[in-house]
Amino acid sequence: SYVRERIQQQQSKALPPHTTLQRHVKANKNVRIPRFYYPGGKPTPVSQVEATIAKITKAFETLPGHRATRGQFHIISKACDLPLYWKVPLFLAAGGDKCNYVEMANFLNFWKDMCKNHHDAASKFVRITTRGLRESILPEDLICLIQDVVDSHPGLTFLKEATEFHSRYVHT
């Protein structure tokens, strides 16, 4: 009997205390687990969104009629702190394909709506390239972006003149 008790004491010292998450939570009711998953990216501070809106407004005010055409959208893209080559998808996502320009009020509504749920570059890119229709990108969503790179990148001037290769380059 003494030997058996001695063995049990040694085994109980070697084993960690049995605890489950449920017991741990019951014992520590004040523990708060911070949110760690944000599907559209971690929310942007309101002050930063307002600063971007002020920059966008200022950019539109420099344009005639407070509207931007496809050729002027590099100014708007820069004001949004987005990469230069997102300008055409941004133009199209904001409704520029309907009348070949985007008015300041319409773009500000688009931008505010997008900033509600899309905070990081990746989620903004998906929202812009898909025009808000899907949560994943299809190859055809990137055609306008790649075509713009072909048309305006200084290192691809040889392709600009050889229009017969545009389709092959864009679809590869």
Quickly give the CATH architecture of the largest domain. Answer: Orthogonal Bundle
Tell me, rounded to a whole number, the average pLDDT: 87
Tell how many strands the DSSP assignment holds: 2
Q: Identify the CATH class of the largest domain.
A: Mainly Alpha
Structural class: mainly alpha
Sum up the overall morphology in one term.
elongated
Question: In which range does the helix fraction lie?
Answer: 55-70%
**Individual helix count:** 11
Please compute the radius of gyration using only Cα atoms. Answer: 27 Å
- Total individual domains: 2
Question: Order of SSEs, N→C?
Answer: HHHEHHHEHHHHH
Task: Name the strands of the widest sheet in spatial order.
Answer: 1-2
Strand content: under 5%
Describe the biggest sheet? 2 strands, antiparallel
> Could you give the distance between the termini?
80 Å
Q: Would you tell me which CATH topology of the largest domain applies?
A: Recoverin, domain 1
Runs with pLDDT <50, length 5+? Answer: none
InterPro entries: EF-hand_13, P2R3A_B_D_EF-hand
Domain PP2A regulatory subunit B'' EF-hand: 120-172
Keywords: Metal-binding
GO molecular function, one term: metal ion binding
